[in-house]
Amino acid sequence: MQLDLFGTRASCHKFLANQCRLLLAALAYTLMHRLRALALQGTELASACVATIRVRLLKIGLAMLRNTRRIRLMYASHHPLRELFALAAVRLGTAGP
């Protein structure tokens, strides 16, 4: 977890600030683990480590257009894993609590 989600960044001199950073890194790791379990089963990233999922799937460029009625996200059309990203989004949308 510390290498994948920057859990080693405890640069503050105060204990509570460092504890908050570590808790946020643990929360991010838990969310990535659930993403892998719910949305990425049966795909090429089903057994990938957290850093690989973050770099290959989640770090993509997009443009956001916002008006009074809706927000549109326009993803890069040349992203190599765009079908996998769409599949994961659909699986997360249909996953229950």
Written account of the structure:
This protein is mostly helical. The chain has helices at residues 15-38, 50-58, 82-94; strands at 62-66, 71-75. Strands 1-2 form a two-stranded antiparallel ribbon. The chain is globular, with a radius of gyration of 16 Å. The two termini are 25 Å apart.
Give the structure's gist in a few sentences.
By secondary structure, the chain is mainly alpha-helical.
Separation, N- and C-terminal Cα atoms: 25 Å
Radius of gyration: 16 Å
Q: Mean of the pLDDT scores?
A: 82
- Give unreliable regions as ranges: none
Helix content: 40-55%
Please outline the helices and strands.
Layout lengths: L14 H24 L11 H9 L3 E5 L4 E5 L6 H13 L3
Antiparallel strand pairs: 1-2
Record keyword descriptors for this entry.
single chain, 97 residues, mainly alpha, two-stranded antiparallel ribbon, 3 helices, 2 strands, 10% strand, globular
